[in-house]
């Protein structure tokens, strides 16, 4: 009788272990059994553990040690549940994927910051930052739309490298730059996920109202070339305007009004468990150690194909039109080239090559940077390429990027501000 009970328990565990994986249970039953936050890795580990314990139960059903095994599992489970309860009450963890709550739908740009929004962001132990958005929807302090007398005003356009949600307010390069330049306001118009096309629209719709004397657009090599094409949605299903060239190489902007983001369908699961604080604590303590693919990997692959040509031509036309628009408004226009962490950290690039078996002759790390420089020279546009300076600082042992989010840390922002201060005051 005892053996039959353990056999039944073992089979039940194996079956439950298979079905607890939502993808498998959905295929078999039409609905998921359990969902624990968004942590598919944990669910997979739970599934495999249940199958393993079930197999052990069947194999050892005739031995007395099986009772001790179950007692150990029961005690361990109680201990883990106690730790989870303790963390949830006395030391709740900040979950890292909550920055979407800072954004709202925008029919012309796709998304924008919620005015006067706030959130606390965390990334795998790299940082914890309290973010506040001002009443105009900028990650900055409050500025009057009307420019003060005897004041130079600079607005900085960009993506997450400019909005900089992973450093404190006073650590952002735009804030440091403002402190370094006398009688100057530097307003941060950066928005996570934006590409140059959205920044051009943002400049014409909002930025111009601030009567800037200088417009700086920081172009991130990692994904800004892709962003202009609109081929990829952003987080939470947000779409973006799309750039095209007509038969006369004029810039066409489509997908405006941008369609509303489609909310993810409510997952059909039997049990939905909130995210676990214990798991998040482990992630925050140990961080992410896995190798992340450089976002620019396809862009630096040679030889040049239609994939490159499309992106290079769109980027050039957007920059040309922005430069002409600024010139028509008597505004100084400057392009800042922001390299990826792989471009400035040679050891990381070599590790990537080794891990992925990449042939050196098939990759030109400086290709997109060189294209941007060529665009600047060809169209008589000012540009500042940060690559060489950041690469040199990294070679001397300075850590300028977060290893997981791959954005500038506070030291990276200090270096960028230093370079731009020298450029603007030379």
Please describe the structure with a list of short key phrases separated by commas or semicolons.
single chain, 426 residues, alpha/beta, five-stranded parallel β-sheet, two-stranded parallel sheet
Given the helix and strand composition, which structural class is it?
alpha/beta
Secondary structure tally, helices: 15
Point out poorly predicted stretches.
none
For the record, give the distance between the C-alpha atoms at the N and C termini, rounded to a whole number.
Answer: 89 Å
Q: Can you summarize the main beta sheet? A: 5 strands, parallel
Strand tally, please? 13
Which strand order spans the largest sheet, edge to edge or round the barrel?
A: 7-6-8-12-13
Element pattern in H and E = HHEHHEEEEEHHEHEHEEEHHEHHHEHH
The portion of residues assigned to helices is 40-55%
Can you offer a commentary on this structure?
This protein is of the alpha/beta class. The chain is 43% helix and 15% strand. It contains 15 helices and 13 strands. It has a five-stranded parallel beta sheet. Strand 9 and strand 10 form a beta hairpin. Helix 1 runs antiparallel to helix 3 and helix 6 packs parallel to helix 15. The longest helix has 26 residues. The chain is elongated, with a radius of gyration of 26 Å. It starts with a helix and ends with a helix. The mean pLDDT is 87.
